[in-house]
Amino acid sequence: MTGNSTTFDPDLCTLSTCPISEANFTYVPSLAGNVFYLSVFAVLLFIQLFLGIRYRTWGFLVGMVCGLVLEVMGYVGRVQLHYNPFPFNPFLEYLVCLTIAPAFLSASIYLCLGRIVVVYGSATSRLKPRAYSILFMSCDFVSLVLQAAGGAITATAPTGDKATMDTGINIMIAGLSMQVASLAVFIALCTDFWNRVRTSPVRVESGDKELVALRAGMRWRAFLFAMAAATITIFIRSIFRVAELSGGFNGALANNQIAFMVLEGAMLVIACTSLTALHPGPCFAGNWDRGNWSFRAQRIAGGDESEELVLKPVGQQHQGEYRSMWG
């Protein structure tokens, strides 16, 4: 990956003293477009705080708030770049914040799938509810660490040290690529689960009457569509960012404002709006905590004195023990 070469201090440049070709972009970021995205994410942040506290969806709340705060910070950097596209610090703020923000948003989505499985019954799924959370949250964590580490290396690279900056950017690309792969597997498993639900009506219609009523509601179905929309748009955005960063700062995608505004900004506005308008708190109708997990000690069958830690869905102890994560 290559950056724009400079033979001067960019912090001393302005649009009236230096050519745009020497800036971080070969375009001036749109003030109206970036202020619009900043405002949307800021409003969604406050709504998510209210809904998360109101419905006590703590894990979902943390992921959404972290992601939205980073989105706001990233667009603050882009607004600064509108007035002066030469300084590196606002560019770095935009680059790092907007790169890692969707990892937190994805984490919130991953938390929802395990609870969706609980609503339909774990027998309908290939994996136990907790397996989805553990598997994809682990992948998301590794992806986030790689992206954050790459951002830190880039941020601390000495001015003009292209090799160190390239190393940081390449690590960020690796983190983004892992995020793309994780989302692809997630989409495949979601599709498989939905097919099993559609082809297993007996399993789905049996069980808790409250959950049967929940599944039949229009709000629940709309929530599932919102989840799908959020997942697909984050997936599209992640593919775009891998291609953009891989092409370098001088690449066509990195300097295409329309592509950025559509494939980065608009995709995440759709994702975050979907996850806010159809927030899991009201959509689960008080059943969100059924998918929570708690550790407890349980004696292993066979009569010995050793113990193991197992996970059980809170509120569904009557459905039996989950001895295996995967089966």
Characterization of the model:
The chain contains ten helices and two strands; from the N terminus they run H-H-H-H-H-H-H-H-H-H-E-E. With 327 residues, the protein is mainly α. It has a two-stranded antiparallel ribbon with strand order 1-2. The protein has one domain (10-291): Rhopdopsin 7-helix transmembrane proteins (Up-down Bundle). Mean pLDDT is 85; it is low at 294-327. It is elongated and about 70 Å long. The longest helix has 37 residues, at 162-198.
Q: Which regions contain 5 or more consecutive residues with pLDDT less than 50?
A: 294-327
Oligomer: single chain
Give the percentage of residues in beta strands: under 5%
- Main beta sheet: 2 strands, antiparallel
Taken together, the total number of domains comes to 1
Query: What's the total helix number?
Result: 10
Taking strands numbered 1, 2, ... along the chain, how are they ordered across the largest sheet?
Answer: 1-2
Give the C-alpha Rg. Answer: 23 Å
Subcellular location: Membrane
InterPro entries: RTA1
Keywords: Membrane, Transmembrane, Transmembrane helix
Pfam families: RTA1
Tags for this entry?
327 residues, 66% helix, Rhopdopsin 7-helix transmembrane proteins, mainly alpha
Quick overview of this protein structure:
The protein is mainly α and about 325 residues long. It is built from 10 helices and 2 strands. It has one domain (about 10-290): Rhopdopsin 7-helix transmembrane proteins, CATH 1.20.1070.
